[in-house]
Amino acid sequence: MAAFTPDAGPDLDLRLVQNTFVTLFWRRSLLEESTTWLDEHGYQITSLDAAAWSSEGELLRGIGAALDFPDFYGRSLDAFNDCFGDVACYAAYGIAPEATGLRAVP
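Above: the chain's sequence. Below: its structure in token form.
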């Protein structure tokens, strides 16, 4: 596979999810470039401030708050899976209906 470069063509979004929906960037500059590209192409960018998270519960609360999960969100991995699935499949919450997609960025 060719080296990743955000300006290498119009299909960056597809290349980012080619093998998985989670992408680990080893250089902050590539993360910022790809985030800018996605923003310019209609993706909603949601920032997650994980610096203070020290437990699974804090992670689940933080992501739930950032994605505006409903009040009934149970803050467990099963509940996260259910709610995040609703974001991905139905845009039920956490994403603007007109957005191309969602990018969560630390």
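The first strand starts at residue 44 and ends at 47.
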